[in-house]
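Changelog note: in this version the structure field was regenerated for every chain. One regenerated record is shown below for reference.
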Amino acid sequence: MSAELPTNTSPHKLAVLVRHGVLPMELGLIHQLFGNARSPSGEPLYKPLTCALTPGRIRTDADFPIYAEHGPEAITTADTVIVPASHEEDESLLPGALPPALAATLKSATGAGARARIASICTGAFVLAAAGLLDGRRATTHWLSTDLFARTFPTVTVDPDVLYVDEGEVLTSAGEAAGIDLCLHMIRRDHGAAVAADVARRTVVPPHREGGQAQYIRRPVAEPRTASTGRARGWALTRLGEPLTLREMADRESMSVRTFSRRFREETGLTPMQWLTQRRIDRARALLEETDHTVDRIAADAGFGTAASLRQHFQAGLGVSPGAYRMTFRGTRGA
C-alpha cells in the first residue's frame, strides 16, 4: 500500500462508531493509540471522537456503560470511521439488513464524493459487510467468526488467518489485539514508521506486526521450562546490518535448526527469515525518515547489502521505492 500523507495540517478527524454491546477494550485502544500520535513539534495528529447513532449512554459487554458525546454528523464528516465490535448485534447481521439509521449513516460517510476511509475491529466487519462495503474485497474478522462470516457474506473473500487486511479505503482486522496492529498500521500509513513507533513505545506494545501474520499463534508465550526463541530475536535485532544465518540464530538458543524454526513459527507466526526481513524493512524505514543517508548506506545498515535488494524488498512489501517513501515522509528526495 503506497504511503499517503493527510492533505491538511489540522488533526485528522476520526469517528469511532459505538453500538450497544461495544467492547470497551476496543474503544479504549483506538483512543489511546490515535490520541498518542504526535507531530515532531508535539501537536496531535488525530482527533478521535466517540460517536453513536443516538448520543448518550451506551451499554458495553462489561458491567459498566460508556457515554457517546457525538452523533451521526461527526461520522459523516470524519476522515476515518472505525467500527469496533458489538457482540450483541454483529453476528446476527445479514447482507443488506442493517438498521436503516446505521445504513444511512455509513452510506453518507462512504458514498460518492465522501472522503472517509472506514475500518473495523473484530466482528465489526459484519457491519461493513452488511452495508455492502466489502463486496468483492478481501477481509478478515476474529478467527472464531470467520466460518459464519464466509457463509453469511459469500461476495466477500474472507482470509481467516491474518491479523488485518488493507484494501485501501476499507480495512478490517481480527480480534482485539489485532486491532492494535491495524491502528498502528493506519498511523504508519498516514505519518510513517517513526510516528507509529513512538506511539507503540508510549503504549508499550510491539511496534509492528505485519497484517499477514497468523491470527492464532500456537505458542505466543513460552511455557514454563520450555525453551523460547526470544533471546535469538533480541540478539538479531542488534545485528541487522550483518549477514545473519538461521544456524547462527539457532545456536543462540542451543537448538537444532529444525527445532528452532518450528518453535520460532509457533511463537511469532513467521519463519525466522520472514521475521528478519520485516525487521530489516522496519530499520530501513526509520533510517529513510530520520537520516540523510544514501540508499546504498541504508541498504547496508539494514542488512540488505545492496540498494537493488532494498528497492526490491521495499517494492514488494510497501508498494513504493525507498526514494518515494522518503519524499512522502520527509519531503526530501532519496539518493
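Spot check on this record: Residues 1-8, 216-225 have pLDDT under 50 and may be disordered. The CA atoms of residues 194 and 290 lie 8 Å apart.
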